[in-house]
């Protein structure tokens, strides 16, 4: 009985491979049932996101291994193994548990600390559970993974601080303005980044947007999308006083917004603060503007610096997270070992008692005249001997199980006496 | 020496101190200094503080403002109360890390006043107490809170302007929120101060307690200066483009004047302030022969211990 994790992610495989092996939301239930059919009495969870495709599985016998799992991928997606096998990683037991905990805690994510993966893992697990593809082992494993991830998010700073340019820009807005519903965003130029910031601000409650672009149609298109207003690029100056937040990303080779513009604007606004975000290179907004009272100006470098700092901060938390994970992995493995040790010891006992019974059966005809009472003594004596022999190994096995490593110990004993899984399973 | 009731105030300070440590600690190490615990400290501190003031009031049969020590603790209590109300109503947990160390410091300083025999110069009539002193105390407390808010504003503004984001950046609210609250506390404090000053003026006029030249009393002058500063601030904010940073600066100046008004006159020998109850003074006062009923005072009130039959009290603690 082993735990397996097999899959690929953004680090191990290019997107061309990942997309071929991805499971769509609708194909996951089919894949789950096909998995449980191919590997009898197995448990499985399939996790498929844009950055990773992973299958977690366990089965009481040894039918699961790297090859059989690769075959499953190959068969399900109709893709020869050779095309993708070099990009796949495969972990067992402790490593598999550790990997899942890392993934769920978003330590293995493209953007470390983003919490989306937590909900993705949860969903993958719920889907599998609703299909009855999971059993006691994977239920336990995934519930622990989710709680470890939550623990890590609350106890460490791994998900603290924004790590994208647009979210940092919005963070500044949130620290300057109280309420966004009466705020006006002025977009100059209509780049992708502008749109992203605008989208985040609309999520914060901004209702009014003004868009100016050299190309009026482009401005109109963006304005329409957010129920905003497109204006003529040349009348840009007239609209500045209305704007609480200005995001500029034109390709102009010179400054588009000058100090005088903003001085006038702030006067007309009676000192109400303005936030200017300049994501253009070369810059659109004269940096001198930052000196004006109640005006806050950030350029792309300022935003990038904050992003980098936040990423650094998150990475500093890595060790802390690792400590928590290691502890939890150990706890889970102890539980897992204990779970396995019971049947393993029973198997050991049965094996020895079978030998004893066989021997007694062979002996019985040879002692034709023995009294019933005497025979009972012999049987009793044999059983006692076996129990005495087994007492110590069983006890040590249980103890070892508590500290981890019990399973390996019992496996060794079983190997020593040539006991096989299959006998037990059949029974 | 402290009397047993005052140990309640000592206990209050202990909780305020613990709260200050926890509030500041939680900025740097939220795991170790849990915010929930900080909330317990401040609430327990506030309860002890109110218990102390209630007991003092019951004992003296008057508001806890008869000595400089009592009025200081009363004033501190109002500040903590207003801040805790703001903290929980507006969800601004970061107000307490700024406030509590100051409160703790002031409370410890207030202990130094315990042995001080300064008491109010005149017996106050109950009506004037409510019309004059309560509004002014509340007004001063509101201004103090607005001072704390402006410090928070200036801290946050600095971080945003200098692009240097410290550990406080996350927990401090937006400039807009702080600006709105500064405005709220000032507009709360201003009418209260106005009422207090107006009733004080009427009182001084009608009762002649501060003499004919009552308007030259240092506390009256400082009170008027405070009023003018905040009046100017209101005008500038409503009329001119006075926003954010400038408002915060003026609020800080206003607060300095408030503190000075509160304790300054004591050093300047104002009649209106707290007076050393020396036999000489007592005599002097008696010479004036003002019957109790007529004695009013302008800003600080006084308290009355039953045995006092003169216009100014000489209670020592």
Put the structure in a nutshell.
Chain A is of the alpha/beta class. Chain A is built from 16 helices and ten strands.
Give descriptors for this structure:
heterodimer, A: 427 residues, alpha/beta, Beta Polymerase, domain 2, Rossmann fold, six-stranded parallel β-sheet, elongated, disordered C terminus, B: 317 residues, mainly alpha, 2 strands, 1% strand, flat
The averaged pLDDT of chain B comes out at 76
Calculate Rg of chain A over CA atoms: 33 Å
| Helix-and-strand structural type of chain B | mainly alpha
Can you give the helix content of chain B as a percent range?
Answer: 55-70%
Count of runs of 4 or more consecutive helical residues of chain B = 10
Biggest pleated-sheet summary of chain B:
2 strands, antiparallel
Distance between the termini of chain B: 8 Å
Shape of chain B: flat
CATH architecture designation of the largest domain in chain A? 2-Layer Sandwich
Low-confidence stretches of chain B: 276-317
**What value does the Rg of chain B take, in angstroms?**
20 Å
Q: Regarding quaternary structure, how should these chains be classified?
A: heterodimer
- How is the largest sheet of chain A built, in terms of strand order? 7-6-5-8-9-10
Shape of chain A: elongated
Number of helices of chain A: 16
What's the β-strand tally of chain A?
10
Order of helices and strands of chain B: HHHHEHHHHHEH
The helix content of chain A, as a percent range, equals 55-70%
Low-confidence region ranges of chain A? 422-427
């Amino acid at each position: 009985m082993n735990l397996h994790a097999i899959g690929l992610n953004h680090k191990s495989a290019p997107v061309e491979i990942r997309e071929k092996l991805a499971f769509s939301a609708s194909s996951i239930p089919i894949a789950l049932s096909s998995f449980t059919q191919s590997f009898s009495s197995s448990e499985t969870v399939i996790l498929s996101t844009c950055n990773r495709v992973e299958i977690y599985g366990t089965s009481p016998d040894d039918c699961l291994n790297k090859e059989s799992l690769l075959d499953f991928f190959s068969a399900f997606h109709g893709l020869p193994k050779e095309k993708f096998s070099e990009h796949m990683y495969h972990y067992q037991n402790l490593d598999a548990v550790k990997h899942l905990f890392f993934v769920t805690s978003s330590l293995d994510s493209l953007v470390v600390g983003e919490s989306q993966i937590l909900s993705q893992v949860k969903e993958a697990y719920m889907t599998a559970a609703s299909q009855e593809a999971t059993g006691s082992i994977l239920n336990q494993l995934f519930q622990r993974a989710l709680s470890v991830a939550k623990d890590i998010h609350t106890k460490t700073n791994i998900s603290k601080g924004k790590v994208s340019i647009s979210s940092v820009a919005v963070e500044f807005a949130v620290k300057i303005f109280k309420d966004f519903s009466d705020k006006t965003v002025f977009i100059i130029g209509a780049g992708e980044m502008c749109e992203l910031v605008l989208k985040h601000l609309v999520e914060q409650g901004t209702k009014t947007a003004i868009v100016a672009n050299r190309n009026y149609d482009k401005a109109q298109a963006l304005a329409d999308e957010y129920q905003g207003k497109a204006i003529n690029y040349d009348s840009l100056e007239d609209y500045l006083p209305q704007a609480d937040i200005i995001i500029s990303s034109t390709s102009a080779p010179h400054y588009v917004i000058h100090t005088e513009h903003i001085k006038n604007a702030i006067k007309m606004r009676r000192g109400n603060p303005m936030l200017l975000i300049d994501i253009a290179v070369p810059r659109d907004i004269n940096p001198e503007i930052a000196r004006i009272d109640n005006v806050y100006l950030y350029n792309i470098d300022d935003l990038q610096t904050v992003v980098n700092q936040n990423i650094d901060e998150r990475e500093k938390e890595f060790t802390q997270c690792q400590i928590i994970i290691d502890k939890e992995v150990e706890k889970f493995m102890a539980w897992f070992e204990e779970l396995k040790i019971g049947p393993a010891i029973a198997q050991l006992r049965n094996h020895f008692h079978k030998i004893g019974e066989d021997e007694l059966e062979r002996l019985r005809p040879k002692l034709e005249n023995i009294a019933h009472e005497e025979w009972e003594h012999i049987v009793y004596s044999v059983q006692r001997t076996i129990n005495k022999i087994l007492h110590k190994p069983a006890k040590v096995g249980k103890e070892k199980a508590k500290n981890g490593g019990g399973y390996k110990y019992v496996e060794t004993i079983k190997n020593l006496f040539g006991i096989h899984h299959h006998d037990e399973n059949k029974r | 020496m402290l009397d047993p009731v005052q140990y309640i105030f000592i206990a209050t300070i202990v909780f305020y101190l613990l709260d200050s440590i926890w509030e500041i600690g939680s900025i740097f190490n939220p795991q170790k200094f849990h915010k929930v615990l900080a909330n317990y400290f401040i609430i327990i501190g506030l309860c002890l503080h109110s218990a102390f003031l209630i007991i003092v009031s019951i004992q003296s049969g008057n508001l806890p403002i008869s000595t400089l020590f009592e009025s200081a603790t009363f004033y501190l209590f109002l500040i903590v109360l207003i801040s805790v109300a703001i903290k929980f109503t507006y969800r601004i947990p970061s107000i307490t890390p700024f406030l509590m160390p100051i409160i703790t410091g002031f409370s410890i300083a207030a202990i130094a006043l315990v042995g001080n025999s300064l008491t109010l110069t005149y017996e106050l009539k109950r009506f004037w107490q409510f019309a004059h002193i309560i509004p002014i105390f509340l007004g001063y407390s509101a201004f103090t809170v607005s001072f704390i808010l402006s410090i928070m504003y200036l801290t946050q503004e600095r971080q945003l302007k200098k692009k240097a984001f410290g550990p406080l950046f996350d927990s401090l609210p937006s400039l807009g929120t702080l600006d709105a609250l500064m405005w709220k506390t000032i507009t709360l404090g201003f009418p209260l101060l106005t009422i207090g000053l107006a009733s004080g003026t009427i009182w001084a006029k009608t009762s002649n307690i501060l003499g004919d030249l009552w308007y030259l009393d240092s506390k009256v002058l400082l009170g008027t200066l405070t009023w003018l500063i905040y009046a100017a601030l209101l005008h500038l904010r409503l009329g001119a483009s006075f926003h954010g940073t400038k408002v915060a600066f003026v609020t800080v100046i206003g607060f300095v004047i408030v503190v000075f008004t509160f304790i300054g006159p004591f050093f300047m020998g104002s009649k209106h302030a707290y007076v050393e109850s020396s036999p000489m003074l007592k005599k002097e006062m008696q010479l004036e022969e003002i019957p109790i009923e007529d004695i009013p005072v302008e800003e600080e009130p006084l308290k009355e211990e039953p045995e006092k039959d003169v216009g100014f009290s000489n209670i020592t603690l």
